[in-house]
Predict the 3D structure of the following.
Amino acid sequence: MKKKINIRLGVIALIAIITTALGVTLAYYNLFQVQVRNDLKQNAKLLMETEVFQNAYGQADGKTEALNHLSSGNLRITWIDEDGTVLFDNDTDVTGLSNHLDRPEIQQALKFGEGESIRKSDTMNMSTFYYALLLENGTVLRVSTQARTITSVLVSAIPVILVISIFILLVCILLGHFLTRNLMRPIEEVAENLDEPNTTLVYKELEPFADKIRSQHENILAAAKSRQDFTANVSHELKTPITAISGYAELIENQIVDGEAEIHIAKQIRQNSDRLLSLINDIIQLSELDHNELPRKFEQVDLYSIAKDCVEDLRSFADSKSVTLSFDGTAAGITADPTLIREMVDNLVQNAIRYNKENGHVQVFVTIENGHSIISVKDTGIGIPADQLDRVFERFYRVDKSRSRETGGTGLGLAIVKHIAEIHSAEISINSTLGEGTEIVINF
Ligand code: ADP
């Protein structure tokens, strides 16, 4: 950023310096030209007014005598006869000079009374300015002087421009340094205090960006915390059945039990192993769902027939819990991963049976509402306290721990349901009355 600001400031400064230098030189040179031409005009008029040329015309002796007083200084004076013959030149011997009738300033003077022209000199960096004036006797008086060309003026200005440029560039580097430091300080402060929600950024324009970074930071922290909690919960959940299995095995090893007690212990070991297995299965399932990048096998499926199969499979489980199970509805097409949908329905119906009452009822219903396929699993069970309705979808959250364990729950069923619903962009709504029952609806 610092480098970019420095480069940009430098480029802007260079453009400013070059255009200013060009502009000033051009304006100065125009003024200078006007001045030179005015001076020439003035000089020619003064010379004409002295009448030295009119007097000298045709007087062979007097001509040189009077004119020789005109010194050859910066101003070159040429006197030309109306046929173009050079009668006098204060700089050169006239005998060597060619006819001047073709010179533009002479032609203009003969025609209009006065004429001007500028010609490049042999030396590249000088120009000659000419001014010619027609005298009363028909001869032409021409004055000229040499002045520098605009290129030579510019070339001579280059060292000054260079020195100014270097100075300004140094100022830009210094300015860029302070500018970036001042610009960056508030941003760095926000970065250092990401945990402080009240730190406000001085720049209003960057507020959405800072908010985004802050919320991402919070999400990262929350994700890290939830991973930590999950690992701690998993370890704890795995430890309980393993400790039980190990304890029962120790009893057998020490031959403390016999007969019926042995059967009881074997049953306990099997139940704990089953629990361990379902826990591991659910953890694997969740970690697979967590990998969003995995390709999903989405296809067009019928929610009704998936749910129907699932309900049929759970009939004997419902019977064992003295719960009646009914299924109804219409065909409802969805684009989904059928294995996941089955898993979701299975978890919902199992919960409805497990958290039910003796002779309770579970009703599964599939239909299409406002163009959306929905499935509803409604039971006449124990219900969920209103203040815990949101929490039951959290991993390992159980309303009644012992009942969940007794019935083979892992505390992960609804977390899996929530995950599967998210993958399919489906909405979950839950309705429950304590002691009366629960209804969970998934809207695709
Ligand atoms: P679990 O394996 O313990 O059933 P879930 O994630 O499936 O775990 O459910 C979380 C908790 O929500 C359960 O322990 C139970 O307390 C409560 N719950 C879930 N479904 C129902 C239901 N249909 N009726 C009453 N309580 C329920």
